[in-house]
Amino acid sequence: MDLFDRTKPHVLALFRIVVGLLFAAHGVATLFGVLGRAGRTPEFAAWPGWWAAAIQLVAGALVLLGLFTRWAALTASGSMAYAYFVVHAPEGLWPMENGGEPSAMFCWAFLLIAFLGPGAWAVDQFFSRSSSSRRETVTA
Q1: pTM value > 0.85
Q2: Where are its TM segments located (predicted)?
């Protein structure tokens, strides 16, 4: 068990990076018609497609970097819950029949990140270190 405990922050960071990268890539593909999505871009500011893709790009990039990780992950999770219940669920009960598997997986993956935090190698760590060192200086 010691190996699992010691490597948990690093494995969580890898999980965060991969999930954030995949989510941001999905947003880029939708917004710019690249990465296999040629010709299917939503009109600027069109609801909900353009906004969903913008959230995917921005929140995915923030999670990838580990910047404002918990809030970005919570936003991403909520957007995927919305996508699942509004777009996919009316087509059928189960994700396998309604095409909502990616939405469901992203929703739960981001909820996990929101609650567990960014793990190692996150930009957020620089802010927490600098604010804690400022507090130590002020109290000394």
Answers
A1: yes
A2: 12-35, 47-65, 72-90, 102-123
